[in-house]
Structures are given as C-alpha cells and as structure tokens.
C-alpha cells in the first residue's frame, strides 16, 4: 500500500497503531517530539513510556480490566505480549519494568521497515490520513490546531503520579513482604505497617503539608482514579485506611496481627531495585514529600528516585466531536489514546489498535470496525462516542458500561463471569466475521 499514514505521538496508543498498520503493509511516519522537546511528565525518550504507575491492572478474567486484555489478545494486540515479557510480580495484576518495556517497544518500532520514526514536534494537523495519539500531554500548539478542527473548546483534568523509592533505603526490619491473604515472607508487594497513633500523625502531617498548586482543587477537575493522596485524605480521617492503606489480608510479623493501616510498595523493575508507593499520587512539594512520606514506618531513610508530580491532562469532548471510530467527521483525522478521554494504559493500547484497524479500513475501502457493545472495549467506545453522553469525563473500562444480562445471576461474581462469557462469545464471532482485518490475529 503506497499511502503513508502519519501517526503523531509515540506513546502506547501511537506505538500500537503504528505496529498494527505496518503489520498490514501500510507505511507509517511516526512522530515523537522527545527528546527534541520534553514533556512535564516523561523522564526518558523511549516510546510507550509509562509516566504514572507501572501497573496495567488486573489480569483476572472476571474483571473489566482482565476481560479487556483477553479481547486485545483475540484481536492480535502487539504491545500486550511485550508487556508480559517485561512483567514484574504484581499479584493478580500485570505490572511491567517500565524501562525494559519502553526499550522493547522502541526496538520493535525501529526494526520495522515500514515505520519511519521522526523525532520532532508536530504543531499542525498533518496532510493526508493521520492518527493523533499525542496523549493527554499534547503540546499546546497541536492541541490548539486540533481544537480548531474538532470545533468548540477542549476540556482538561489534573493527573498525578506516585513517587518511587530506592529498595536499598527501606528498613527491612519493619517492611515485610506479603500479598493480601498470602503467607508471610511471600508475595508481590512490600508492606509498611502503621499503628493507630502512627496513622493519626501521618494524616495530620499529610493534610497540613504544602502543595505545589496553592489553591484547593475543584473535585470536578480531578479524575477520580488519579486523585492525589492528600485530596483523598481530605474526604475523611479513615478514607485512606479504607482505601489505598487498607490492611485487610495482611499480618505484621512483628506483632502477628493485622496492622491499623498499611502502605503497599510495588516493584518497578524485575530486579526489584525500586518500588512505587501504591496509591500515593501527589501534589505535595518535593521537600514535603520527603518529610511526610518518611513518616511511614520503614521509609524513615527512604531515598526518592522519583518524586510524585502533578500535571494538566487534556482531552476532547469525544461524544460531540468524533464519530464511532474516533474520527473527526469530514476529515482524514482520527484520534487515539487518552486525548479521546478513554483513560488507562491498556485502554490507550486498545484505542491505538482500533485506530489502526479503522484507518486500514478507510484505505482499503472496507467497512469500519464496530465492536459489540457487550464487550469491555466495545462498551467503552459506545459510551465515548454517544452524543447522548453528557458531562463527559475520562473513563476506564468497567462493567457499568456494558448492557445488562436478560436474566442476570444475583451473585455479583457470577454476574460478572456471565458478562465476561457473553463478551468473549460476541467478540469472537465478530472477529471471525472480519478476516479482512483479523486474519492471523493471535487468540
């Protein structure tokens, strides 16, 4: 195929899109602005860099996140196998060594003879067929150009990342290894146990700590899945103890009892040389992060390899500006990734895959991809492109978007299992009906 497709953005969505198009014989010019122009959240110049958590969420088949991974496998996803090859222990979740993952994706893209990787900023909408996958940190110039194409004003929300600490700086006489309900001394997480007085003192310090942004946030500006830990704490004294710091299923080996609260640490790499503070996205200043987070038992001498940061993420009003394939009507411009308001790492990969399939369909004169709305991805796309959707905000896949069963089981676990079974069957039938797009897809 002689037509060149321009893909803007070398994140998860853009990398998946480029690889999928190249796999179908389409020449791709992939633009990534780093390192020519840095972003406020990235730390390296590799493709598909994970800027917040290193977790791609649950792999359990009866969860929406686990179901989405199964759907992507069925459609022949390129990045998920790479993620699994770069995985680190994370219980029932898929977490990756972010440097190894980014390096592997970059090598895969650079090895493709059909992909030209261009390291420069794009400030205008490219001519010809293009996919804008510039992410939630789309440059001001490109977002302005995109806004003029989609019409109306874009929207935005604040996003936050958690700090990372050096494993060698942890006090192992306090920190213990255990997954919830697992045996002591085994598991994929490290735990910092808190007594009641320690928790109370920590909460007091957290609530009074200095933040980077001086004004209080309006709740509408904060995406619920990325709330800064200090903002969650403001909702109630026990909010963290029943949230990110819940101690259920854990036993402090020093006491033989469940702690009052517990901070969990998740490995950042296969070597376990660094750990992420789970649920500790934050807007605190760096000195305050050192002061307050070192109050956590076992982290008194913690060395911070990366501090938590907060930044503004941008996205378009997809239900009122894009069609069912995330294309701007009347143009050759299609969007993918978090700029569409579909939130989450795997959701970004999925949107890149869909952008590639629909762009290929456009070029080959085939019918567009219309995934069954009974699936995790199909229901998310249906929600995000439905003009009836009001007050559009970033959304993960979830079973709340899926049409209900006709005769649903009363048991929640059984109901979710039935929803997942129906989704697999419907998507399997659709994939089988489209050999023009899915021939050779991995099942």
Notes on the structure:
The chain has 443 residues and is of the alpha/beta class. The protein folds into 2 domains: 4-158 and 313-438, FAD/NAD(P)-binding domain; 164-308, Elongation Factor Tu (Ef-tu), domain 3 (Beta Barrel). Helix content is 32%, strand content 15%. The strands form 4 sheets. It has a 6-stranded antiparallel β-sheet with strand order 10-11-12-13-9-14. Strands 6-2-1-7-16 form a 5-stranded parallel β-sheet. It is globular. The two termini are 26 Å apart. Mean pLDDT is 89; it is low at 214-220.
Task: Briefly say what this structure is.
The chain is α/β, with parallel strands linked by helices and 443 residues long. It contains 13 helices and 16 strands.
The ordered H/E elements are EHEEHHEEHEEHEEEEHHEEHEEHEHHHH
End-to-end span in angstroms? 26 Å
Task: Provide the spatial order of strands within the biggest beta sheet.
Answer: 10-11-12-13-9-14
Q: Which range best describes the helical content: under 10%, 10-25%, 25-40%, 40-55%, 55-70% or over 70%? A: 25-40%
Mean pLDDT figure: 89
User: How many strands?
Assistant: 16
Name the beta content range.
15-25%
CATH homologous superfamily of the largest domain? FAD/NAD(P)-binding domain
Say what the CATH topology of the largest domain is: FAD/NAD(P)-binding domain
Structural class call reads alpha/beta
Q: What overall geometry do the principal axes of the alpha carbons give?
A: globular
Flag low-confidence runs: 214-220
Count of helix runs: 13
How many domains, in number, for the residues?
A: 2
* Cα-atom radius of gyration: 22 Å
At the first level of CATH, the class of the largest domain is Alpha Beta
> Under the CATH scheme, which architecture of the largest domain would be assigned?
3-Layer(bba) Sandwich
Biggest beta-sheet profile? 6 strands, antiparallel
